[in-house]
Amino acid sequence: MSERQATQPYDTKAARSPLGLGLHHVQLALPPGEEEVCRRFYVDVLGMTEIRKPPVLAARGGLWVRADDLEIHLGVEEDFRPARKAHPGILVADLDALAERLSGRGVKVVWDDGFPGHRRFYVTDCHQNRLEFLSPEQG
After folding, report:
1. Sheet holding 89-91, edge to edge
2. How far are the Cα atoms of 28, 75, 98, 101, 105 from residue 31, in angstroms, in the given order?
3. Is residue 73 within 8 Å of 28, Cβ to Cβ?
4. How far apart are CA 10 and CA 86, in angstroms?
5. pLDDT tens readout for residues 24-82
């Protein structure tokens, strides 16, 4: 059993492991039968691309989308409840352009300056799941 490392400052480069961890995708839930509503938000509004699910998983319903280095899986949950606190933090190269795109399509953008060193805002998707979009401050 390895020893726990001491808590590091946020900007540390020492947060490494010998396992090579990384993030493949984020899973969010949607109510049964709401794939088309999700397509309108994630594909039409956010500009992501729908990717075909493997046949064995496609039978479960849901929707997978991808753009750049981000992949989101939207899975059907029978007793769906939106994630209002838990959320993905999505890095964006041009945060202002995304905020403008979302606002222009009727999505409420809520800016938050509570994360030092970053600009960020929150939106809720078509089923009230919380999404955070952020970008490190330049300087």
Report:
1. 89-91, 130-136, 118-124, 110-112
2. 10, 8, 26, 26, 23
3. yes
4. 20
5. 999 999 999 999 999 999 999 999 999 999 999 999 999 999 999 999 999 999 999 99
121 φ, ψ to 5°? -145, 165
Opening angle at CA 114, ends 112 and 116, nearest 5: 120
47 C-beta neighbours (distance < 10 Å), count: 12
Nearest to 27 by CA among 91, 88, 74, 85: 74
pTM over 0.85: yes
Chain centre distance of CA 86: 10
84-87 LR contacts (CB < 8 Å, sep 24+): 84/124, 84/128, 84/129, 84/130, 85/130, 86/130, 87/122, 87/129, 87/130, 87/131, 87/132
SS3 53: coil
